Structure formats: structure tokens, C-alpha cells
Amino acid sequence: MPAFMTPEWAEAVRDAVNRGPDPDYRAGKLEEYWSWIDNARQGFEGSVALAVRAGHDPEALQDRALLLRFSGGTCTEAAIVAPDAARDATFVLAGDRDAYVDLAAGYEAGKVVMYRRLLLEQGHLLAFFNRVYFFVEMLAVIGTVPTEFPEPALT
Amino acid sequence: MTDTLAPDTFRLVEDAQLRGILDIHIDDMLEYVHSGLRDLPGYLELYDRYLRQRWNVNELDFTRDRTDWTEAMTEDERASFLAIASGFHHGERQVEIELPIFMVGCDEDHKIFISSQIEDEARHVVFFDRFYREVVGLEGDIMGTLDASYQWISETFVGPFGLLAYQAEELRRNPFDERARVRYATNYFLWIEGVLALAVMKITLGYARRRGFLPAYYTGFTATARDEARHVQGGMRFLRDAVDRDPTMLNEIFDTLRTILLMSSTTSRLVYFEPLGLTRDAVLEMLITQLNRKLVTVGFDLPDDIRGMVQMISPQLAGG
Ligand SMILES: [Fe+2]
Ligand SMILES: [Fe+2]
Questions:
Q1: Ligand nearest to the CA of B224
Q2: Shortest CA gap B158–chain A (Å)
Q3: How far, in Å, CA of B204 to CA of B29, rounded?
């Protein structure tokens, strides 16, 4: 099982994001909702970074982040990058390690946003919400990618 | 003040104590919201109304409601009811926790009024918590009943309410950013409270009244609608003052509405309104009417592209 925030995990995330949710999950929501999301994805030329934050300090991004680039409706690149490179993304979402652990354990992606477990550290707020269901369902898919969370080093 | 309600009805709605609320028709309560919009009251006047209209959520007795729920209502009615009421259960909680940060950037009179609104929203959370616990039968602490009712809300709930959470975070970082405050107020007071909440209140309350069911729910939620009248009037006052001071603030309102309407052009679940005596088209019509009436009464004229988007709304069943 690839460890969280490793290149192997990033590749698995890219595959999963391009594959989309499984048919059973899709069937639980209206087709019009999925076509709204398709529209949002097709029109998105940009990137999303998922960063790990220590506590509530927006400056304290940890050493690695996932950067996903989108073009023509596809996730064309998934890379593990340093925080400075993550800050070049169109949108940077950040949360503490527990937010990602919970997401991987099946915690609802909608709640991750609504309860501020992940926050928009950077990027135009209204532009993010113009495609919000695409991003939330992307988080849900990322949560289904099996991953291990190495114990954080004691400092 | 009374241009949309007969004077004695206006007084009845304005002055009723909790016990008398059962006699008020929900349509009169919704009219009451608009009766204060043309001459928007000041914040201290709204605060004074709060002191007179505040109600005690623990005075409600849900015993009859529990019997109606388990013995008189059909399975279809309960399912439709939950699909609609759960958006309020969560909506009230979200507007409660996201409001304090807005208060930081308010002037002094406004701060006093917002403090009363925070208390209102907390009481609305307790009201729904009691309803879900004592009538529907959910268990747990406040977050426990919320987690248990989450299954009934649409995925698209995260549109307006996720936006509100992130807007509150934006204000946390910069509480005096006037443009961000106007965008926040557009989502919170104009859309969530003024459009979604008021339109959706009518569905479950109209049903309860027609069938003579759920008297404590009817009483508490109609009292909630009267609280919302103050919130919407205070919110519209804030937006109108902001635009009067700086007409370019209208762009912030319109940009926010564009995003909200784009998010509102879809829904992830089909809700059957018919068991509660309404159609999807009728609900849509209520949403559009609520939006237009708010905008017209405070004198904001919508650009054509937004008018077009309004026609594309898909009903979102939530409020705060
Ligand atoms: Fe409210
Ligand atoms: Fe409320």
C-alpha cells in the first residue's frame, strides 16, 4: 500500500481521479449532478494542491504536498512537491494530518469542507465554489485510494 | 410598516407570545418579513424587537408531535419531511457557528444586534436537536444527532454552506475587509436566510398546518420564522448601507449571486414534495419570488445574466 504523500500514492490518486467514482456510488446521486461536475471538470485548466498543515498557522505547511494539474477534463499530472511549489497552484487546500486520515477512513468529503477540516489557503474563493461539487467529489475519490499514514516523527 | 399585512394581523404576528404562535398562519409570518424591508429598521430597533419576541425553546412540549410522527404520518410523508427538515437541522448549526466572526467587523449598534442573532441561531439549533431527538428518535449529543441526520441532506448542501464556512475563514483572517463582508452577507442574509430558509419553511409548516400535525414543531418553527424576519431585515440593512456608501459594492453582491446561482443550478437528490402537498415547480417559484422580493424592496436591480440564472435554479432544501 503506497504511503501518503509519496509519488506512488500520487500516481494512484491520478488514476482514481481520472477513473471517477465507482458505478454504485454514482448511482446514488442524480445524473444532473454528475453532468454539472463534468462541465466543471471540462472547463478547469489549472491545478489543485493538497497540503498538510501543522495546527492553524497558514504559513506552517509541512514538507510535502500533492499537486494535481488538470487540462481538457483530465488530471494530466500528479506530483509530490515542496510547499513553495504548491503555492503556485490555482487552488491550495490545506488541513492537518487528521483531516486526511479521516478522509481515507471514509469521513464524508462534504463535511471535510463544511466543517473546515480542509481550508482554501490560496485561490479565488468564488472561482473555487463555481466548481465546488467537482472538487468535493474529487476529495471523496481521493479518500478511496488505499494509503498508509506513517506515524509522524516526534520532534 | 404594514403595507403588505392588515394592521391587526401585523400586530398579532409582531406581539404573539410562544403560546399564541400556533394561531398564526405561516403565510402571514412570511409576509411579515417583507413588511419591514421597505423602511429597514435600525439595528437597535431590531434588538428591541428581539427582546420582546425571544422565546424559550424548552417550553415546547413535543409529546403530541411524537404521536403524530409515529402513528398519523405515512412513511412517504416522513421521508419527504426529513429530506427537507434536515437541511435546517444542519443549516441552523452552520449559521450559528459562522456568525461570531462577522460581528468583529461590525460597528457598535450592529454588534449588539448580531449578538442577539447568534443567540437566536443557537436556540434554533436546540429546537431542531429536540425535534430530532424527541420526535424522530435520534440519539447522541448535539453533534451526534447532526451526524445521524446527515444522511438525509443533499450533497449540494455543501454549496452555500461550504461557501459560508470558507467566507467566515476569509473574515477570520481579515475581519475588516468590507468587500469580503458584503460577499459573506450576500450568502448568509440574502440567500441562505432570505431565500432558501423562508421558501423552505413554508413547505413543512404549510403541511403541518393543513393536516393539523406536529403542533410543537409548528409553534417553534413559526417562531423561528419570526426570528428570521429580524435577521433578514438586519442583513438587508447592512447590504443597502454598504451599497449606499460605495455603489461598487453591488458588484460584490452580484458576483456572489452568480456563484450561488451556478451552484444552485443542480441538485444531487430528487426530493418528493408531493407527500407534503407541493410540487417541485411550486417550490422553485417560491425561491424565485423570495429572491426577487428582497432585491426589489431594497432597490437592487439584477443584471440580465443573473436574471437568466435565476430561472435555472434547482430547489435546495435548507436554511438557517
Ligand atoms: Fe437566521
Ligand atoms: Fe436560524
A1: 2
A2: 6
A3: 14
The CATH homologous superfamily for domain A7-143 is: SCP2 sterol-binding domain (3.30.1050.10)
Residue B1 belongs to a domain? no
The whole-angstrom distance between A3's CA and the closest CA on chain B is 29
CA distance B86 to B81: 8
Of A58, A110, A125, the CB nearest to B167: A125
A chain contacts of residue B265, beta-carbon cutoff 8 Å: 36
Report every protein residue that has its C-beta within 5 angstroms of ion ligand 2.
B 92, 121, 124, 320
Model confidence pLDDT, tens digit, residues B142-184: 999 999 999 999 999 999 999 999 999 999 999 999 999 999 9
All 3 cell numbers of residue B42? 435600525
- CB neighbourhood size of B18 (10 A): 17
What pLDDT digit, counting tens, does each position of B288-310 carry? 888 888 888 778 888 999 988 88
Find the residue in A nearest to B266 (Cα): A33
User: Crossing angle of helices A31-42/A132-144, nearest 10°?
Assistant: 100
Q: Would you list the domain boundaries of chain A?
A: 7-143
Instruction: Please list, in sequence order, all residues whose beta carbon lies within 8 angstroms of the beta carbon of residue A136, skipping any fewer than 6 positions away.
Output: A109, A110, A113, B155, B158, B162
Give the residue numbers spanning the domain of B93: 7-317
The CATH number covering residue B199 comes to 1.10.620.20
- Note whether residue B2 is domain-resident: no
**Cβ contact, residue pair A132, B159, below 8 Å:** yes
The interface predicted TM-score (ipTM) is 0.94
Domains contained in chain B, number: 1
Q: What is the pTM of this model?
A: 0.95
Grid coordinates 417553534 are at which residue? B220
